[in-house]
Amino acid sequence: MIFEKPVSICSLEETVTLLTDKGDFDKALRLIYAFVEHVFTEPLCVSQVFGSKTLDDLCQRIGVVNFARIKQGAGYMQSIQMDEPVFVYIVTKLQKSGGHTRVIESFIKARPEGRHVILSTELAGKSDSNGLIEELDAKANITFEKAPKVNFQKRLIWLQTRLLEINPARVYLFNHHQDSVAVAAIQPEMKLNASFYHHGDHHLCLGVYLSHLEHIDTHPMGYHNCRNKLGIKNVYMPLMVDDKGGHPNEFRFLQNGMLTTCTAARSNKVEIPYYVSYCDMVPKLLKATGGKHVHIGRLSPWARLKIRRGLKHYGIQSDRFIYTPWVPSVWKALHDYQVDLYIASFPYGGGLTLIEAMGAGIPVVLHKHIYSRILSGFDIAYPEVFSWRDPKELLVYCASIEADALIAQGHLARKQYEAFYLPKEDWLDDDNGTPPAPLSKDFIVSNDEHAAWVVQQLTVTNVLSRKCYRALRNLRRFLYSV
């Protein structure tokens, strides 16, 4: 039977159900994966759709049949009772600069007495696990296991088999948005103490509606969105970042009378179609401030070229833009570069880097997204934080801010970190802690700007660029599949 590409959730459900009934779990899982991939790579869908109960149910249906076959075949080793508790983290991929990788690191540090096993489906490419393992190996018992390079169904067999063999005390699901294998794996019949860590929270993400898993949200915007709009019973576990200290005693704001700004983000947060471009704004920012701008995080060659061309256009020396693809600690880098002001990434903000900046005592500036509170992030920051929507607001603010204001804002930033994001003893075991405060009333959707932006996304050039981008992602997926 030849299956056409699904054009709706209904047709996808029908096709996946037929494939599951036939026993073709591999193709069924691939179809779900491809559908989610197509949706979350469409900018028009970002922060508009967050989860799908239908897709989660389809994954679970595949998983339950596959699990039954594993038990029937008994092709696994019975788990051995361990002296120390075993904690399992299911991921799609570990990457050196990934936010969820740093969260897993903090989870491991919080439970040094346990044995920690990271199971990766590797569906999004090859993991870069060396950094995490090397850093924590002396402090904790960590094992990293990746799925064999086989088809989706065999990866599901591997993952479910390993869960049976390990029999963990706790499982945390850190899947990427499209990872149908990870979401199919954990079955109610396993009776695992398991949690879904909702970090893919501004896109369609598989796993959001897994009712037999505890649903963890990590910031006020996500918590209220899932609870009040999506109707999900969830818990709040704020992001925690180890204290690396505030400003060094010798630090002085506005060294030599020049403002040094910084943004930390990879290309997936700033090279995104939007009404204002980060790459265009960097040269304008440097022209307005006369200072320096530090970018931490890997950008594409095209983005770097665009920034350099902008610098040349405004007659700005190239050494005033400092680019570093990766640093071991954003917190420490902010001190090393003597940053005066942290400009949060846009159009997609980053929660962990924002918290690191506040902990480091750096004043922050946030972008007020035209339609998404989640992408704005100002409910994480201190109430007095400066936020902008019109690019001119950002340029005027940065060009006119004085040392006294930076000092005051830096104190507010540090105070916010200490009050809400400084790890406390046994913080990881407080799963049902106090919910976050109500959301700020400051956010208003800019419907006219949103409409103008949507129209721009429907041009032939933008549609073709999206097709090329998806083709490259599909090629990468093929290279890591059978």
Plain-language structure description:
This protein has 482 residues and is of the alpha/beta class. It has 3 domains: 53-74 and 84-236, Rossmann fold; 255-420, Glycogen Phosphorylase B (Rossmann fold, 3-Layer(aba) Sandwich), CATH 3.40.50.2000; 447-479. Helices cover 43% and strands 12% of the residues. It has 18 helices and 13 strands. It has helices at 9-22, 25-40, 53-73, 99-110, 130-136, 152-166, 180-185, 220-229, 267-270, 278-289, 301-313, 330-336, 351-359, 373-376, 391-400, 403-420, 447-457, 460-479; strands at residues 86-91, 115-120, 141-146, 170-174, 194-197, 214-217, 234-236, 260-264, 292-296, 321-324, 341-343, 364-367, 386-388. The strands form 2 sheets. Strands 3-2-1-4-5-6-7 form a 7-stranded parallel β-sheet, sandwiched between helices. A 6-stranded parallel β-sheet has the order 10-9-8-11-12-13, sandwiched between helices. Helix 4 links the parallel strand 1 (86-91) and strand 2 (115-120). The protein is globular.
Compact overview of the structure:
The protein is α/β, with parallel strands linked by helices and 482 residues long.
Separation of the first and last Cα atoms: 21 Å
- Total beta strands: 13
What is the CATH class name of the largest domain? Alpha Beta
Report the major sheet. 7 strands, parallel
Radius of gyration: 23 Å
Instruction: Assign an overall shape.
Output: globular
Structural class: alpha/beta
**Strand order of the biggest β-sheet:** 3-2-1-4-5-6-7
Oligomeric state of this protein: single chain
Instruction: State the helicity in percent bands.
Output: 40-55%
Named CATH architecture of the largest domain: 3-Layer(aba) Sandwich
List the uncertain runs: none
Please name the CATH topology of the largest domain.
Answer: Rossmann fold
Strand content: 5-15%
